[in-house]
Every structure is written in structure tokens, then in C-alpha cells.
Amino acid sequence: MASAGEARGAGGVAAEPVDEVLAALADPTRRRLLDVLAARGAASATDLAGELPVSRQAVVKHLAVLDAAGLVTGRRAGREVRYEVRSAALDATARWMATLAADWDRRLARIKALAEAAEAAETAAKHNGA
After folding, report:
1. If DSSP codes are grouped into helix, strand and coil, which group holds residue 4?
2. Buried b (16+ CB within 10 A) or exposed e, 82-102
3. 70-95, pLDDT tens digit by residue?
4. Is 3.30.1490.20 the CATH classification of the domain at 10-89?
């Protein structure tokens, strides 16, 4: 059960972490950072800045947002911090989205069934009244 300040969304996933993940993924540079980290594995901000058209400082700021959302983690390796993808927050968000999609599919199926039943009743009434 959710605590007082923690709303639960579809699938029982706390809404706030999903909100943070979706907000982090809303930025194309952050999505690109995740793509690069997923493809190459752990990398420093300097390494990542070399692959993107943004400064190292911008990369660090984007990584901080991704870290706060639970999408990456940084580990100190000597003088640098190496970042890598963490899949748990993304997996939880994907489960939430799948549950939400299934809920909407059920709702739309009910609407379709009601519309078809109404159409069938109308057709039957026309044939019976004609």
C-alpha cells in the first residue's frame, strides 16, 4: 500500500518514480546518453561528451537527472566517475505502461461491445418495426 505522499499508478508502481523516469526520458539528449551507455557499457562524462554535440558540463547535468530518476548509476574509478545504465527503474516504468495499455484496451473493448450491441438493437428494431 502506498504511503500518504506516494500515489500508486497502474500496476501498483509508485507514481513519483514513474514521473521522474518519464521526465528524464523526455529529453532527447538524455535518451541519447542512455543509448550510448547501453551500447558501450560504463563510461565517464568526458567519454560521453566526446560522442554527443554537448559539453562535458551539460553531460554531467543530464547524468545527474538520469541518476536521480534511477536510470544510471555512477561509480568512482580513480579521478573519474564511470556511469552505467540501471534497468530497474526503466523496467518498472515499462510494467506501468504495459498495465496502463492493458487497462485502456479493456475499456476500449467494452466501448466497442456497447456500440455493437446498440447497433444490433437498432438494426433489430428497424427489422421488427418494418
Report:
1. coil
2. bbebbeebbebbeebbeeeee
3. 999 999 989 999 999 999 888 889 89
4. no
Q: How far apart (Å, rounded) are the C-alpha atoms in residues 100 and 88?
A: 18
**Cβ neighbour number for residue 41 with a 10 Å cutoff:** 11
Cβ contacts of residue 23 below 8 Å, gap of 6+?
A: 65, 69
Summarize pLDDT for 34-73 with one digit per residue, the tens: 999 999 999 999 999 999 999 999 999 999 999 999 999 9
Dig out the grid coordinates for 124 from the structure. Answer: 433489430
Cell 556511469: give the residue. Answer: 83
> Directed axis angle between helix 28-40 and helix 56-68, to 10°?
90
Handedness of CA 37, 41, 42, 46 (dihedral sign): negative
